[in-house]
């Protein structure tokens, strides 16, 4: 697995930095000309003056919550009955519209994201290659194929490698086991929790799945304990870090030391809520500037926490490394591969005024997430609890247990989502 997807992965770090910063001014000019929101973000700035990383501090960080609000505001301004203005759909952040975009997706919010026709648009082929996926193999893809882009992320990456893809999607565990037994894939792409469920179902059914040797996981934490669990079954699992906005940002290699940052992005770690980078090694928010000409996000704050690791990876890839996902800068969390936002819980309360206060508690170990909505209810009758559970599922796309609690019993600490999972 020492072969690289591209030789530039082993380029001299100063050479890569010069190349990125040399390409950045033209990328900013293109973005300014085609994406109105980026033009506003860069207002009063000369792209040609951005010559080193320190110069990026002059550009304000745009955070995911601001992107969502920009999209919501733009869509509300769309005149009823008028032809759809695509720039409004994406809040002015996209440089492409219908026709130029091959697909459009919706993440919780909803936040709409375009995917252009460019091969490996999301940039995950590099991560699949580092995980050992090779041309001519079958990739069993268990990421969702509807609404969110995860399924397409892996499919387009696998196609870029020359692999065949089975679109397994999510759910239907017994059928997944049978299809894996019939097709004998060498590779899996999806969340670690779902593959664990499939393998445990196969065990219960007395079905052997010996063909599966490699997996690329994303959408959830992948702690060492889970890595060891798969290794005991002869499956080498690797992780990749990405988002629906930015595509693949960093990926694991055979060295198993942090995540190597993807090519064609400029990644910074900033103090949460500010524009200022922190010192290398200090934990802060991941902020990314992408050279993607179609969806040119500039200093986009992901809300994820990480830190830069010193030195180069022993695998020979020379780009900077991060320590991986270290939590959220806000209360947003990820459950079974889906982000859950405080705003979604607020939406539940808006639908159910009988609930005086609520807190979503996420517990269990990674791969066995348990989501419970603790709700202060004066009359916790079965019908009210069922309606509440239905609203949570509709707004978050996830099932949750409802636990009624006495009015006034939840802490008055401003916390809406409490993630108490173990990541060991």
UniProtKB/TrEMBL annotation:
InterPro entries: AMP-bd_C_sf, AMP-dep_synth/lig_dom, ANL_N_sf. It holds the Pfam family AMP-binding. Residues 136-289 form the AMP-dependent synthetase/ligase domain. It comes from the Bacteria. Coiled coil: none annotated. PANTHER family: BLR5969 PROTEIN. This is AMP-dependent synthetase.
């Amino acid at each position: 697995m020492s072969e690289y997807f591209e030789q530039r992965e082993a380029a001299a770090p100063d050479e890569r930095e010069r190349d990125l910063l040399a390409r950045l001014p033209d990328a900013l000019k293109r973005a300014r000309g085609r994406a109105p929101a980026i033009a506003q973000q860069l207002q009063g700035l000369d792209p040609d003056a951005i010559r080193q990383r320190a110069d990026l501090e002059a550009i304000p960080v745009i955070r995911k919550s601001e992107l969502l609000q920009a999209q919501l505001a733009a869509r509300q301004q769309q005149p009823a009955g008028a032809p759809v203005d695509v720039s409004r759909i994406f809040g002015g952040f996209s440089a492409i519209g219908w026709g130029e975009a091959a697909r459009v997706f919706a993440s919780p919010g909803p936040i709409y994201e375009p995917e252009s026709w460019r091969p490996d648009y999301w940039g995950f082929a590099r991560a699949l290659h580092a995980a050992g996926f090779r041309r001519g193999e079958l990739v069993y893809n268990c990421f969702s194929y509807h609404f969110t882009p995860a399924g397409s992320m892996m499919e387009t990456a696998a196609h870029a490698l020359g692999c065949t893809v089975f679109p397994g999607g999510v759910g239907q565990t017994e059928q997944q086991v049978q299809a894996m037994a019939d097709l004998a894939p060498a590779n899996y792409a999806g969340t670690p929790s779902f593959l664990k469920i499939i393998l445990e179902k196969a065990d219960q059914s007395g079905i052997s799945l010996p063909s599966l040797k490699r997996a690329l996981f994303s959408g959830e934490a992948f702690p060492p304990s889970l890595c060891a669990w798969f290794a005991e079954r002869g499956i080498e699992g690797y992780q990749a870090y990405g988002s629906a906005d930015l595509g693949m940002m960093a990926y694991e290699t055979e060295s198993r030391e942090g995540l190597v940052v993807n090519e064609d992005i400029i990644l910074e770690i900033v103090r949460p809520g500010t524009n200022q980078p922190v010192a290398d090694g200090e934990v802060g928010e991941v902020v990314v500037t992408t050279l993607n000409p179609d969806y040119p996000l500039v200093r986009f704050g992901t809300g994820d926490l990480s830190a830069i690791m010193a030195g180069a990876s022993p695998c020979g890839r020379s780009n900077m490394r991060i320590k991986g996902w270290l939590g959220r800068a806000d209360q947003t969390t990820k459950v079974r591969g889906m982000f859950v936002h405080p705003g979604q819980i607020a939406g539940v309360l808006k639908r159910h005024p009988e609930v005086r206060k609520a807190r979503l508690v996420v517990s269990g170990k990674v791969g066995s997430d348990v989501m419970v909505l603790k709700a202060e209810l004066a009359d916790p009758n079965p019908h009210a609890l069922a309606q509440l559970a239905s609203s949570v599922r509709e707004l978050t796309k996830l099932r949750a247990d409802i636990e009624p609690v006495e009015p006034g019993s939840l802490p008055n600490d401003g916390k809406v989502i409490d993630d108490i999972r173990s990541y060991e």
